[in-house]
Amino acid sequence: MEKYINPEYSILSDLCIRPSTDNPVVRERVDKIITRVKEGGDAALRSLAEEIDGSAPSCLECKSDEFTFAENAVSDSVRKAIAQAAQNIEAFHRAQLPETVEIETSLGVRCIQKAVPIQRVGLYIPGGTAPLFSTVLMLAIPAKVAQCKEVILCTPVSRQTGKVASEVLYAAKYCGVDKVYKVGGAQAIAAMAFGTETIAKVDKIFGPGNQYVTTAKQLLGNKYVAIDLPAGPSEVMVMADASAVPAFVAADLLSQAEHGADSQVILVCDSESIAEGVQAEIDAQLRQLGRSEIASRALENSRIIVFNGEDSRSRMTDFANLYGPEHLIISLENPWEIASRIISAGSVFIGNWSPESAGDYASGTNHTLPTCGWSRAHSGVNIDSFIRKITFQELSQDGLRGLSQTITAMADAEGLQAHANAVSIRMGKSSL
Amino acid sequence: MEKYINPEYSILSDLCIRPSTDNPVVRERVDKIITRVKEGGDAALRSLAEEIDGSAPSCLECKSDEFTFAENAVSDSVRKAIAQAAQNIEAFHRAQLPETVEIETSLGVRCIQKAVPIQRVGLYIPGGTAPLFSTVLMLAIPAKVAQCKEVILCTPVSRQTGKVASEVLYAAKYCGVDKVYKVGGAQAIAAMAFGTETIAKVDKIFGPGNQYVTTAKQLLGNKYVAIDLPAGPSEVMVMADASAVPAFVAADLLSQAEHGADSQVILVCDSESIAEGVQAEIDAQLRQLGRSEIASRALENSRIIVFNGEDSRSRMTDFANLYGPEHLIISLENPWEIASRIISAGSVFIGNWSPESAGDYASGTNHTLPTCGWSRAHSGVNIDSFIRKITFQELSQDGLRGLSQTITAMADAEGLQAHANAVSIRMGKSSL
Questions:
Q1: pLDDT tens digits for B35-55?
Q2: Which A residues, 122 through 151, put their C-beta within 8 Å of a C-beta on chain B?
Q3: Of A174, A201, A289, B121, which is the most exposed, with the fewest CB atoms less than 10 Å away?
Q4: Given CA atoms A353, A354, A356, A361 in this order, what sign does their dihedral have?
Q5: Contact A348 B204 (CB under 8 A)
Q6: Mean of per-residue pLDDT scores for chain B
């Protein structure tokens, strides 16, 4: 981790730069995969699986015996964990369900805003080194709370076993996912965006993935299908002062660093001694990590920034908002005073007893969050992500009369005569 | 308008097809414009204005004398209209402001979801044949209600006068827009996405535009900047039965048709006699419209669909949901019964006294709405469009202890040892 002491204002935005992930070769490959799936449907999914993974599953959809196998394979401790995590995630997302808004803006003019669930949502769960079944909970639970009509899930099979990870299948069934398909990579995203013989087209796609998956989401998103969030590598910022425990801070930074070599972790603190204490703890803990090589590479993208002196709290806060971290841990004295001034972050963790991993799994907040500074414009996944808000208006005859001069004056000034006429004709005088 | 009587189920999705707008030539030109603005900043904006519009404004930003000129140029009736419309729009959007959500998901585990305004938003207002100052109200008012810190606006000058339309400038000042820039087209979108010497980069871009503008939003959106909605030509569907007034229905269809030659209007009704009555009224009213040529061309993309027989109300409703119209007018007996079953639409107009133009200007609902079937996944612009929701969590030591087994079990099963350790180390036992 590179260390910066009281960096000049002019370089602060450089310190917000994330590791680059743009890769034209990936883009070109994904483009071809998309075209094949769009044109070839199921057959293209099969031939792509054979080319990329070496073999294609005999049936794309997971059947009941596979769910039964998975249920038996999952340990009691994981089942209990899923149950507790699910309860908290459900409670917090249920509390977010919006009320219908209804007001009379003028006499006889009723305006209503009503939430309606998105009908068909598609979840993508990566395979890879570890089966991320926690993401199944984070996406399927709010989808069900929002009452989406159909929730499907695509995930690759393991190259070793030829099966979907048992935890993923178990979590999918536990959360009420309607169908699980054994399709991974960019081809899964394309299949959900366009539909195939087996996989019905969805209205919105959610979920993380490797470069191929995120490139497919980027290429297809808002052209053929809606997507949850623009994607990027995961990141955490920890703000620390003398009230922080260096061993805890180091553990939090490492828990983010182990996600991937392109992760970024940032420590912002108010003294060099804390920086040194945390660095020493990182060195000690890192050696013992199973994924130490991945974490080490992530630490190369990472930074320690010390703002010491009188206005250090303000400068730390301003930098946090400039960076807009996906995860922000506030290990400071009086953390809520700082938290109240945070205007750009995905999810915020307050004090010494709120590690990022609590939010990653079980506190109830969502772990699908804006990375790469997208927190400046995007929320993390929340109940809103699974609904649309439709507006309704009903004017009485008097209500329309009360607005008629306003509407016709504006329509005339915009040169839209037919707009004016739709009112005039109702007032008994065509303006044509 | 082509007429379909009880179309087969199998062709219904064909009847939802919108006029195509994909144009590779436009895309290529926009790509070049984007690169020039990204690299050249203000100088590129000037040279593009000279090339495309024949001349560049001496100063990109509108100054106080221009606002004063505009204020004097706007008629009293338009000022009054803006004041009444603004009041309704503000009231309805203010009613949508979300409350902070706070719950204790487990003992000692507090989860909070708080709305924070997007800091810098950029609005685009097209020039063209008519100055769409109503869109200034629809975008700037919710931005101010949400308390966005800076609201800027780009709009082209008129080729005739070399000035920004007075109504646009007046409305911008009335709504509290911070800065107005005389830049139009794809170059305005690029300028707001990347920033130039004069125009500060924004976090999110809102607003309609021609093919160049919408292509620029599509190319830059969710790569360099957030955007409001995927764009497409405007559309209306009217559902009508014997309770509808054919002259009103025709006026509503024409008010949409006059927007542009690529607009689409759809009449869905339960008898051929209504279809004929509306068609006759369209013919009569069309002849008298100033923009009759545009409207006529839009009518060529348009359809009348008759579902008669016993289950006509259900079939009309199903088709409305399949089409997912931007604007939906329900001119039916007992309209709320149908409205309660609408799950895909941007904004819905109930009964005979609620023309689309009421919502376009003054009822209080927003007129920036999802087109092209995007209502299946997107809301129209509303207060949520100008905020982000940040989550916060605070666990007490006991709160973390209560979740510790859950978190470590899940982290272990996902192979993420450092995630588990961030909890174990706080529980006094490192898991490394």
A1: 999 999 999 999 999 998 888
A2: 129-134
A3: A201
A4: positive
A5: no
A6: 95
